[in-house]
Specification:
about 150 residues, about 0% strand, 6 helices, mainly alpha, elongated, Four Helix Bundle (Hemerythrin (Met), subunit A)
């Protein structure tokens, strides 16, 4: 049983980066597909679509920082449960945040393709979704720092 608990602690340590990477890949793919479609319909401004489609990649960066922060705690019988809970739940939050941010970016690209003057305002929903990823990131760092072995 002790080995299982330790394994869960390690799973929690690596979950934020793994789940954040999956979410970022899905979100960037959704936004990238929208960017490719928009480039067929406009004569210029391709760079802003491609650049915007990378926006969901930030969640994997948050996951990497959380992983290193949790690794600093050290996995033991005393810390494994907390590491598992913090890491897995934060990873799930990053996964969904990146996926939904990709959808918001795809909608922003579609809107600005048809009406270029709304480009700046159209990315506001994607920025709001990013805020939830930042909340999860900060809470994971604060909770991880409070784990006592």
């Amino acid at each position: 049983m002790e080995h299982f608990v330790i394994a869960l602690g390690w799973l929690g340590t690596f979950a934020p980066v793994a789940l954040g990477a999956v979410g970022s890949a899905i979100g960037c793919s959704l936004a990238g597909q929208s960017a490719c479609g928009a480039m067929l319909d406009v004569e210029s401004g391709y760079g802003k679509f491609v650049g915007l489609s990378a926006m969901p990649s930030s969640q994997v960066i948050y996951g990497i920082v959380i992983m290193f922060s949790l690794m600093g705690v050290g996995v033991s019988d005393a810390t494994a449960g907390a590491l598992f809970g913090i890491g897995l739940l934060t990873g799930i939050a990053l996964l969904f945040s990146a996926m939904y941010q990709g959808q918001a970016v795809a909608a922003a690209i579609s809107a600005s393709k048809n009406k270029p003057e709304v480009f700046g305002l159209s990315i506001a929903p994607a920025a709001i979704v990013e805020g939830f990823a930042v909340f999860a990131f900060v809470f994971a760092l604060v909770l991880g720092a409070s784990i006592v072995a």
